[in-house]
Amino acid sequence: MPARGSFMKNNFGCPVQGTINVLTGKWKVLLVWHLGFMPRRFAELRDLLPGVSEKVLTAQLRQLENDGVIERQVKSSNPPKVTYRLSQAGDDLIPMMTELCHWGTRYLGIPPNLPMIRKAGQRKTANRSKSHRRKSITA
């Protein structure tokens, strides 16, 4: 099922530009990357992104949800427990983001400062370990 949001804006008939449109936003790439490890609550995401305001974080999470990249699950409680996780479409972005990380290190000389979720080309399996062991990005 195609996503339904910002990818349509100025994509010029190019799927690459549409994909870039989905990830354009100061915190979106990092949100997707962090959610690649495990589902997280709003406060956890806020704590992982020093300097992000709650207003901007909320807006970017909503945009990613509208674009079909993440899913928002609300559990009835007081206060409600909201958890964010990658959708299948979001999970499919992780190998591409891993390749972009390697490219940035190789050609721009930017050393990675976040752990790697999995090697490029490696698909997440349905029974991925809950331990979420992190590997060095340079591995």
CATH class placement of the domain at 12-108: Mainly Alpha
The rounded Rg comes to 15 Å
The strand count comes to: 3
Order of secondary-structure elements: HHEHHEEH
What share of the residues lie within helices? 40-55%
> What is the overall number of helices?
5
Spatial arrangement of strands, main beta sheet: 1-3-2
Mean pLDDT: 82
Strand content: 5-15%
**Biggest sheet, in brief?**
3 strands, antiparallel
Give the termini distance in whole angstroms.
Answer: 34 Å
CATH homologous superfamily caption of the domain at 12-108: Winged helix-like DNA-binding domain superfamily/Winged helix DNA-binding domain
> What is the second-level CATH architecture of the domain at 12-108?
Orthogonal Bundle
Low-pLDDT runs:
126-139
Structural class: mainly alpha
Q: In the CATH scheme, what's the topology name of the domain at 12-108?
A: Arc Repressor Mutant, subunit A
Overall morphology:
globular
